[in-house]
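[[Encoded backbone]]
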Amino acid sequence: MGRLLQMRSLTATMTDQPIRTTVVGSYPVPDWLKAYPARSHLRDAVMVVLKTQELAGIDLLADGELYRFDLNHPETNGMIDYFIGQMSGVSTEFTAHEIAAFRRDPQMRFRARPAGVIRGPIGPGTLNLPDDYEAFSGLTDKPLKFTVTGPHMLSKTLVDSHYSGREDAAMAIADILRGQLQEIDAAAVQLDEANISGHADEAEWAARAVNRALEGVQGEKAVHVCFGNYGGQSVQKGLYESLLPFMNALEVDHLVLEFARRGYDELDALRGLRPEIGVGLGVVDIKDNGIEDPNLIAKRIELAEKRLGAGRVQYIHPDCGFWMLPRSVADGKMRALTEGRDLFLGAS
């Protein structure tokens, strides 16, 4: 009960700002952690990540996802393999025939191999998200959000030799996530979905799986709709207008959306978003090493408010995670994020 009350207190603190700053999740893995990946060094590295965000004035912090990084899968920073590799019922060893079957799927051309093959009922295995959160949640007094890859994305990277299709596999994964996420008392829980953006025709079952995974979450519920950051490259092609059925079907408090790289021509599409779903606006381009001028960020917020209405934007953030950038660039972008927000609020 004490932890729950603490979470509620942190959530209340977050609401003091009309527009809050946050990050999407990942942070560049320090070189010294790659060289010496001991548990104690990981804890020290997460403290650095959290303190860096605090100094930059970020309102809603993330742990940086450093413990998920896998040198064998650097293109995705562990956002897939960390989860799949620990689940029972999924084998990470597969035959040449299974690899060939995966490569025939045009939706997965950005991966040479599947993340795994489903050979039986999917279970949590050794995946322990509450333990992941507890390991670092005491390292800051500021509100924290916990990020996790969503069930639609995870199901799309698998070869299914057990269920009747991806929908069933996604729901099985969603049940695992739901059982663990509801135990986490973070101020916010964010699901990252990086495949639906190019496959709006799967909106119905993708949204159903996401909603199942978020059932029982104690804090704010968020979904990051990502167009891909595979080795620094966009993967999916799609439009927010076509994704409205998916986004409107979500039972969430806010969305985390890309705009800085894509441009802001699609803002008008968000007028069709249910008013109770808050807009998280991407104002920092993570595929460019240039650090944005705070004045530019303020102008981007102003443009969004003019197009969507005052109070519609609840968060500003980078387009995606920082993992591929130099640390100095990521840190500079976070400072610019806060300074730009403050400039906007001071002028409004």
